[in-house]
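Changelog entry: the PDZ domain-containing protein record was regenerated in this release. Current contents:
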Amino acid sequence: MSRCVSLQFHVTVHKNPNLGFSVAGGVGSTGNPFDPADETSIYVTKVQPEGPAAFGLKPGDKILEVRT
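Regenerated structure tokens:
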């Protein structure tokens, strides 16, 4: 029997023209390739190894909130 564990992290990314990650998804998108049942979420697709977001993000992470 397997268990699903959900972890939530708060990440602060300071303004920078190159954040070091890419996102995709949302309403009308082709869906989340990391979780086919999830059709509307925004998720991380790529993370630059030396970029500002590399310490805490990985492909497949779901973006829950963005503050401006």
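The chain is about 0% helix and 20% strand.
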